[in-house]
Amino acid sequence: MLKYIVKRIGLAIVTIWAVATLTYFLINMVPGGPFLSEKAVSPQALAALEAKYGLDKPLWEQYVTYMTDALHGDFGDSLKQRGRTVTSIIATKFPVSAKLGGTAVIVSLLVGVPLGCAAAMNRGKALDNIISVVATCGIAVPSFVICTVLMYFLGVHLNLLPTFGLTSWKHYIMPVISLAFYPTAYIMRLMRSSMLDVLGQDYMRTARAKGLSQKVSIFKHALRNAILPVVTYVGPMLAYTLTGSFVVEKIFTIPGLGGEFIGSITTRDYTVIMGTTIFLAALMVVMNVVVDIVYKIIDPRIKLK
Amino acid sequence: MSEYLVDIKNERLSFFTPAGEVKALNDVSIHLNQGEVLGIVGESGSGKSVTAYSLMGLTAHPGKLIGGTIEFNGHQIHEMSEQEFRKIRGNEVSIIFQDPMTSLNPVFTIGNQIEEVILLHTDKDKKQAHERAVELLTLVGINEPEKRLKQYPHELSGGMRQRVMIAIALACEPKLLIADEPTTALDVTIQAQILELMMELKDKLGMAIIMITHDLGIVASMCEKIAVMYGGRIIEYGTTDEIFYEPKHEYTKGLLKSIPRLDAEEHERLVPIEGTPIDLLNPPKGCPFAPRCESCMKICLREMPPVTTFGDIHYTQCWMNQKAQMEGGATNE
Ligand SMILES: Nc1ncnc2c1ncn2[C@@H]1O[C@H](COP(=O)(O)OP(=O)(O)OP(=O)(O)O)[C@@H](O)[C@H]1O
Ligand code: SF4
Ligand SMILES: [Mg+2]
Fold it and tell me: Is residue B222 in contact with ligand 2, taking CB distance under 6 Å?
């Protein structure tokens, strides 16, 4: 167990460092820079700006400075949003995205797992076919289409739900549906196929032969085995969803991290790009560890190593 | 109500598959007294497992009982609902499957899986169920039962897991234990131990056993009666002595010929008789064994052979025997 923890922490540091380094050099390799797009910048002002943020130094030196600061927890100031540190941007925007994304993940689990099970248990019957069609659609239709359709019908046409912001529970409905659509469909499919697999296992026959009811057989003996692939999927998916979706945040005008991330790329806000990327990588690493541990709890055969 | 513990009369069971009706069981009749051991032998696909499962209401989809009656311990099995079945499964009748590696749920402890069936069928509370589980593991010869109960299936060897399966099966002291090739997946030395254990427990607890196997050695040493199945029929039925020393059906004779010696020590596997098993989707009109039978006559191809009886329980379904008996009867008179 101790070996596992040490190994995991080591791996996490290497992963995050690699992601950070790669990102750092990639964004600097792309022509252009944070201050070039603005029209009326005189060469003197540009030089002054670059000097202020250290962009005039050789790339290597910039990199070392950035990494050293980052190690001390200082991710620098935003190059574009005057007077705001990257840390404060993440600290204000992440909770918004996380609340929305977390709700979406919970919804997708609550809907996807039972429907997937129901499809497997009614294999080949009408219910299974309906669920399969819905799942395929859910996977195929991109989220901006869902957002737009929801927005048009529920928001504009019927005027049932607010179309922007996140100020009441009603505001959550459309963004959550949009965010949860794909994962729900995916979980449904995963759950269906793994449940079918488990239902054919010998231990399910044993459960029946013991005289257990179908309910107990499914809820006790099948579900715990069948949920494992879903756990594997939900870990990384959670990391992505918590950090927000650009499309959904843009369409519903939600001030979240997803919009911030894409926004920072288009404006070449180097420090914000770096900060959000490192944050996502760290979250991903944490989620993978959580998946490992949950896996171990569910399936005693798994050894943490 | 039947005087027998198990009384299957003319059971017919088919699987209604997309390709058509698979006639898995045709006129199968079996009866068994309390405490008796019946062996069912026959090649793969002959219907051994289907017969046994139907007795517990475990027939797999799309199988359906389409004829005959099944009585067990006073229950009319053929008209029982799933709910009624649940009360007797694991309680009055239990089953041990072929592969102990996969028959236990990998994510629950041994203790949980044994106690589960006790809690389900008795009024025992958790603590009493645990005590009973310890008792059961001791009964099936597992050391350190307290420790084992906390372990997961993957931490146990194959033989040990089959012992656990037996413990689960015996938890509620069933009247009948069905063993569907209980040792096929185990090492030879472990096989002998498990069979010995089963016989020992049978003597101790007095339950009847239906032993399904490919292994004639097992049948000879364990069973009082033997049913030989072929193509979804019992083509010969009798006491172990009758089957081994006075086999009547050509298939049975072929089976016996394929064993070099009749030593109980030698656990010889059945050597398949030449030819392929019949297609249960399109069963022949006459004797199912006809295409492979060296003594096949014209009538064998045209009509199903009737039952010819010898002595109390010994019977076969074969024209040659029917003819011999009729001629014998005629000359005797
Ligand atoms: N689920 C099913 N669907 C369709 N047909 C089936 C099904 N289960 C069994 N059968 C049919 O019933 C026949 C008898 O099967 P059964 O499992 O009883 O054979 P067996 O004698 O136990 O063979 P083995 O020694 O291989 O276990 C098979 O030939 C098969 O055609
Ligand atoms: S009935 Fe005919 S074909 Fe069938 S076993 Fe007897 S002799 Fe052979
Ligand atoms: Mg079988």
Answer: no
Q: Cβ(B293) to ligand 2 under 6 A?
A: yes
Across the interface, do A202 and B102 touch by the CB < 8 Å criterion? yes
Given pLDDT bands bounded at 50, 70 and 90, which one contains residue A251? confident
CB within 8 Å: B103 and A212: no
Q: Which of A208, A214, A231, A297 to mutate to test the interface with B (most CBs of B within 10 A)?
A: A208
Q: How far apart are CA B255 and CA B283, in angstroms?
A: 22
Assigned token pair, A262: 């894409």
Q: Alpha-carbon torsion B113, B115, B119, B125, what sign?
A: negative
Q: Is B230 in the pocket of ligand 2 (CB under 6 A)?
A: no
CA of B219 to the centre of ligand 1 (A): 21
pLDDT at B331: 47
CB B269 within 8 A of CB B40: no
B248 alpha carbon to ligand 2 midpoint, in Å?
10
Tally of CB atoms within 10 A around A72: 8
Chain B: nearest CA to A201, how far in angstroms? 7
| Ligand 1 neighbourhood includes B45 CB (under 6 angstroms) | yes
Average pLDDT, chain A: 89
User: What ipTM was reported for this prediction?
Assistant: 0.86
Nearest by Cα to A92 from A284, A276, A247: A276
Report the alpha-carbon angle B24-B27-B28, nearest 5. Answer: 80
Ligand of minimum distance to the alpha carbon of B254: 2
Q: How far is the CA of A131 from the centre of ligand 1 (A)?
A: 32
B103 or A304, which is more confident: B103
Listed in sequence order, the DSSP H helices in chain B are: 48-55, 82-88, 100-103, 110-121, 126-139, 145-149, 158-170, 188-205, 216-222, 240-245, 250-257, 298-302, 319-332
Nearest residue of chain B to residue A198 (CA atoms) = B105
> Over the stretch A45-97, which tens digit does the pLDDT of each residue have?
888 888 887 788 888 888 999 999 988 888 988 888 888 899 999 999 999 99
Chain A hits for B104, Cβ within 8 Å? 203, 206
Q: CA of B98, closest CA in chain A: separation in Å?
A: 10
* Inter-chain CB proximity A301 and B152 less than 8 Å: yes
Please write the tens of the pLDDT for every residue from A110-145: 999 999 999 999 998 999 999 999 999 989 998 889
Cα distances (angstroms) measured from residue A93 to each of A89, A90, A220, A264, B196:
6, 5, 40, 13, 70
The answer to whether the CB of A188 falls within 8 A of the CB of A112 is yes
In the prediction, which pLDDT does B134 show?
A: 96
Q: Which two tokens stand for residue A287?
A: 């989620």
pTM recorded for the entire structure: 0.85
Q: What is the DSSP code (8-state) at residue A285?
A: H
Average pLDDT, chain B: 89
Residue A38 pLDDT class (50, 70, 90 cuts):
low
